[in-house]
Amino acid sequence: GHVDFLAEVYRSLSVLDGAILLISAKDGVQAQTRILFHALRKIGIPTIFFINKIDQNGIDLSTVYQDIKEKLSAEIVIKQKVELHPNMRVMNFTESEQWDMVIEGNDYLLEKYTSGKLLEALELEQEESIRFHNCSLFPVYHGSAKNNIGIDNLIEVITNKFYSSTHRGQSELCGKVFKIEYSEKRQRLAYIRLYSGVLHLRDSVRISEKEKIKITEMYTSINGELCKIDKAYSGEIVILQNEFLKLNSVLGDTKLLPQRERIENPLPLLQTAVEPSKPQQREMLLDALLEISDSDPLLRYYVDSATHEIILSFLGKVQMEVTCALLQEKYHVEIEIKEPTVIYMERPLKKAEYTIHIEVPPNPFWASIGLSVAPLPLGSGVQYESSVSLGYLNQSFQNAVMEGIRYGCEQGLYGWNVTDCKICFKYGLYYSPASTPA
């Protein structure tokens, strides 16, 4: 996928049981390949390398293998030998050739092998499977997707090597929303991967351990068409029409979710002012952007309070072009775009503390608040903590302070978002007859 749509790729990765990472035999490992592989390793998804386009002229597989070892991982096991032009054949290695590669990565097996002891096929298979599912060994297969070379073998490998991360023995329901989409009829559709249990039509299901929703309609996708169903099982993807489900919402028991490290999405880099070509379509444009940003959180927008311009934030040119096409084709709104500008961020350079006291100008409120702000390393984001006891200042007041800090960080001294700092709520004072959390 293009880097502008990396967030969508990351969301999809989070619900996979395994991945096939394609590498062009002609072009080798690309920058985007490295980004995707890094994400797969971080999340902990077993991965097979598939060297594609081996039927093109001028292919040197030894160079591709070296490229993989240098840029991705040296822990690869090449499962096939390939005869290139003019014969073009892909054949599995013999067992002994495959096991040599597995043995070299295990000190115990290597010592046993060099001492002349017999290695059982079962322990070799188990070693390969363990390392594959631990993401410390990556099988390499070959073929041409376009000309159906090596594909049957790859499908067989997928069915044998990958197994589901679902809890088939569990009766408790657990599922995660990984995609939001709007249909042509403007239905809001939530795509959910089920990890355990069975979801039935008319079930009442708890969302992220909070409110419950009733399942009134359920769909699955068959050949790109939505088909109604009345139940869905662990391991399946189900589609619900619902206004309240959000990306990463969890249905049922959150403890049954696979424990995977979260990948942070890249932040938008550019912003621009947009307006409809027809001024009377302004409300239509805002409604359309609301739906699009709901599906893609990396596409953000707001209305400037001073100029009333619609400001759109995005990752790159390709994402902007796709958004314009979507607005025109799906929502029938053409837009005019001003020159994009780079989005800057503000961060503190040193620690500072300050307290605003009750009724001391310019504070008109019946409350005192003391905060400290300290810089953090790049990429840390905003961290918040409170050292004010809940026994003294109850949760509603604490929440109001935290919300005020979040709002304040949206616009720093120079008008940009504030990031990479730790903010501590250190002191609070209020007058109970007059003070309110608002």
UniProtKB/TrEMBL annotation:
Gene Ontology molecular function, alphabetical: GTP binding; GTPase activity
Domain Tr-type G: 1-166
Highest taxon, organism lineage: Bacteria
GO biological process: ribosome disassembly; translation
InterPro entries: EF-G-like_DII (IPR053905), EFG_II (IPR041095), EFG_III/V (IPR035647), P-loop_NTPase (IPR027417), Ribosomal_Su5_D2-typ_SF (IPR020568), Ribsml_uS5_D2-typ_fold_subgr (IPR014721), Small_GTP-bd (IPR005225), T_Tr_GTP-bd_dom (IPR000795)
Keyword annotations from UniProtKB, A to Z: GTP-binding, Nucleotide-binding, Protein biosynthesis
Keyword Nucleotide-binding: yes
PANTHER family per the UniProt record, alphabetical: RIBOSOME-RELEASING FACTOR 2, MITOCHONDRIAL (PTHR43261:SF1), TRANSLATION ELONGATION FACTOR G-RELATED (PTHR43261)
UniProt-recorded name of the protein: Ribosomal protection protein Tet(M)
Source organism: Gram-positive bacterium no.45
Gene: tet(M)
